[in-house]
Amino acid sequence: xxxxxxxxxxxxxLPEGADxxxxxxxxxxxxxxxxxxxxxxxxxxxxxxxxxxxxxxxPPGVDVKSGRAIFEGRxxxxxxxxxxxxxxxxxxxxxxQEPMTAxxxxxxxxxxxxxxxxxxxxxxxxxxxxRTLDLVREVGLPDPEKIIRAYPFQLSGGQRQRAMIAxxxxxEPRLLIAxxxxxxxxxxxxxxxxxxxxxxxxxRGMAVMxxxxxxxxxxxxxxxxxxxxxxxxxxxxxAKTVLEDPQHxxxxxxxxxxxxxxxxxxxxxxxxxxxxxxxxxKTFRTGGGLFKPVREVHAVDDISLTVARGEVLGLxxxxxxxxxxxxRTAVRLVTPDGGHVMVGGVDLAALSEEELRxxxxxxxxxxxxxxxxxxxxxxxxxxxTDGPINRGVPKEKAQAKxxxxxxxxxxxxxxxxxxPHEFSGGQRQRVGIARALAMEPDLIIADEAVSxxxxxxxxxxxxxxxxxxxxxxxSILFITHDLRVAAQLCDRxxxxxxxxxxxIGRVDEIxxxxxxxxxxxxxxxxxxxxxxxxxxxxx
Amino acid sequence: xxxxxxxxxxxxxxVALLIAVIVIAVIAPMLFxxxxxxMVQRPFLPPMSVDGLPLGTDTLGRNVAAQLAYGARVSLLVxxxxxxxxxxxxxxxxxxxxxxxGYVDEGAMRFTExxxxxxNFALAIVLVAIFEPNLTSITVAIAIVSWPPVARLVxxxxxxxxxxxxxxxxxxxxLSKPHILIxxxxxxxxxxxxxxxxxxxxxxxxxxxxxxxxxLGDPNSMSWGYMIGAARTVIRTSWWLSFFPGIAIVITVLxxxxxxxxxxxxxxxxxxxxxxx
Lengths: 539, 277
Prior knowledge:
By secondary structure, chain A is an alpha/beta fold. Helix content of chain A is 38%, strand content 25%. Residues 533-539 of chain A have low confidence and may be disordered. By secondary structure, chain B is mainly alpha-helical. Helix content of chain B is 71%, strand content 0%. Chain B has helices spanning 2-6, 9-31, 64-100, 102-116, 120-130, 135-162, 165-172, 177-185, 190-213, 224-231, 240-267. Chain A binds chain B through residues 60-61, 331, 333, 357-358, 360-361, 363-365, 367-369, 372-378, 383, 386-387, 390-391, 432, 435, 439, and chain B through 164-166, 168-176, 179, 183-184, 187-188, 190, 275-277.
């Protein structure tokens, strides 16, 4: 087999004052024709920098110190800017993580694809259109004639990513670099995109360098794997070997950290409910003018469920399924249109603004974005004591409690006097949990609380939540899009689709004998599903 | 952030110039104990022609250097105080409009637009002409014409910060809305406000000079605008009478603009136009 790309001892320097001298250090690997190489690592491991260096897209201040990257007999790192421009798109193409920002929002999809031909001075206007249509058809976009006249905002996330892939394929590149192309997508869409990439590899025989942090995705598509950590390759090999018999400690830890399909022991649940939601409804209305009809979205459509004391209920669904709205309605950050939210005998949905403020402590929330959920200009101590002091707890007592909670979540009391920017994402999420606990709530709602974290950090936070569940017999409504995460922590799982509750049941029921089609689709779409199933679940 | 500001050459030059102007303004009574109004020599003496009068004398034989030094006091005072007053009007109004939205926002914004539709300078002239022209009325007039942009800026900042998750968290902690606005949201709007304020001081100094030039200054205090206005009839024979106050205005305004730019780059390192892109 011929090597499409071979990278030899690549070293990329970071500007002075960065946390380490090299973004990528002494990295070598090769990709053969028709092969998919997965580059795996957590954030900051230098995996994206490697790809950017190949494309000549390094940010200012970061540059290649040494090494070669031989592509088609030429060292792409030493090409002139004009040669690089000719190479980009034509021989090496790239797709990005966020398809919305990678597409020009003011240009029709068809024009954007045709622009690739124009940039390389190929074909006539007429031929370009025909080829664009072919491409759109090839990546499986529905109704090609109509799609090429659409703007990016009219497409769904998955369709946009397909359009990006069509653009990347336009000039039949021999190497496709995909930088986390499915991370921003729902599981079912992710599964479709992965299948598309596999198909295209088959049909066109191109080499693919696939950057990801998700070992499930690796299990799904990789031929070869390299694992990167802090700019160095720590492990390499073919996919099967790396996944089943990892040699390096770091790879082992990463693999251990993955939420597997391993199902927890079913626990006996208490009878008393911590949260009872009855016939909850919330409809969002947008638009509506003289000539436009009002657009209604039933985000939460007549949902009833209960969370028992000490139970963790997982709420799973794709984006737009209304799961976050349900969570926000339950803490009444959003006021419902109808229905009841009973917590400790009080209907939160019916209280007036003033009464509500006094009852707020009963339900607390842990938020998704660890960077936006803490006030950057307030010390951690302030974040943890504001609420209790407001409820009338004496200041000294609130501060003592805050220190105690910081110990419990594993940060140490000396964290109290520091500002949020001194903490990493995972540590901030611990602060968020401590903040919720400081209010002594009956129930905690965790809205995608671990989604923004790297796998190893994710595992630590999940461990913490599991530990707290045991120690404080905490009730949690755990909202997530990731079934694997839900399986690890939850006692029962509720599946939502388009504002409705599709199915609710014990974790083993949902995983092993799902009743509804939609649940089955979701389960089938989990990347690496087969691999984890065969390994972990004695079915 | 302070380190980034200090490494910015332009901003440090601005700080040095501004400090020089401030020092001159503060020690003016020591340098020229007789004040700016006293006649000390023959009129129309060019600069450097007589010892002790480095910048010459004006139409009435007064010391131009003394006039400049005292003028600095007026310019800086009016610039700083009027900016402060403008912030006191604009920040609360913008914060309320951005935080509460709805009718509060509508009302506050229509009120702001009412001021924005009238040309700044014309409104300032009318206000000063209606009141007696003195330092207080000039300061108030400048403040009244310069608060609307502050209100709009603060409103926009508050609107974007209001949707952040830490504000939701504060609501869940049971904090009241005024508490959230003052303790959680407003501290996060401070950096753009500081940048804007530093630029507003410069504009205020220009406005004051223009008003004085038109004869709408405080007749009891010497100011740079008044000096230029008084010298405009003799500009062809005695250039130094309008040249030096002009330079003084340029240097002060430039210094403030450099500082403002420097602060802006320091607060938003990603938007810095000095990048090597």
